[in-house]
Amino acid sequence: MTRILQYREHDSLMVAVDCIIFGFDGKEIKALLIKRGFEPELGKWSLMGGFVRKNESADDAAYRILDQLTGLSSVYMEQLHCFGDVNRDPGGRVISIAYFALIKIDDYSEELMKIHQAKWVSLNKIPALVFDHKQMVNIAKARLRQKVSTQPIGFALLPDKFTLQQLQALYEAIYETVLDKRNFTKKILSLNILNKLNEKEKESSKKGSFLFVFDKKKYNSLEKENFKFI
Questions:
Q1: Which CATH class is domain 2-148?
Q2: Cβ distance 101 to 87 under 8 Å?
Q3: Fold designation for 159-220
């Protein structure tokens, strides 16, 4: 009883979650933005977010909101940062826990795009966003760059079957640089975490390029100390 009374002496705050969702269109890394459907900042570009319900964890709230926006449940997502500036939301005292997620652009339905007035936007062309959402995107971009160098999360942005050219294009888009094709191919194949298929992707050229798949079991069996993709 004493403990409950002590709780009552403190202010009650609202807790929200915001989702930074990245996709890869084969050339650029893009963020999924929506038009905000309520005040404050009605009609302005925003990340998808919502309040944490009384009977759910922050993680559960983030997965619920991600599912509402994308219709996808089995995606890569992790907690990113807590944003707690006193005046960050003009609607009230709201602390936001940001999450970033990686999805395959082709898995996202056109119907949901229309329902949420959503749009894929290049990270180099992010418009003005509500509150501190632009800061969230920038921190998520830095986290993505940090993690893809040592962990295989980048494969979440690619089709299940991909060419080495597509894989290289992904890393070039993330780091915004051009990588040497020979060195990249040599490095990736030396890791022995890809399985080459007896199939070719022939949309890019008549000759076609062999398709590969990421082998999670091989990756899990590796010693991870000092492991680097590039």
A1: alpha beta
A2: no
A3: Arc Repressor Mutant, subunit A (1.10.10)
CA distance 159 to 156: 8
Among residues 209, 98, 193, the alpha carbon closest in space to that of 143 is found at 98
Query: Would you put residue 45 in left (φ > 0), alpha (ψ -120 to 50) or beta?
Result: beta
pLDDT digits (tens, 9 = 90+) for 127-146: 999 999 999 999 999 999 99
CA proximity to 17, closest of 74, 72, 83: 83
CA distance 228 to 37: 42
Where does residue 200 rank: exposed (0-12), middle (13-18), buried (19+ CB within 10 A)? Answer: middle
Domain ranges of the chain: 2-148, 159-220
Query: Rounded to two decimals, what is the model's pTM?
Result: 0.92
Give the containing element (helix H, strand E) for 83. Answer: strand 76-83
What are the tokens at 42? 């009605």
d(CA 13, CA 198): 57
Whose tokens are 């998520």? That residue is 140
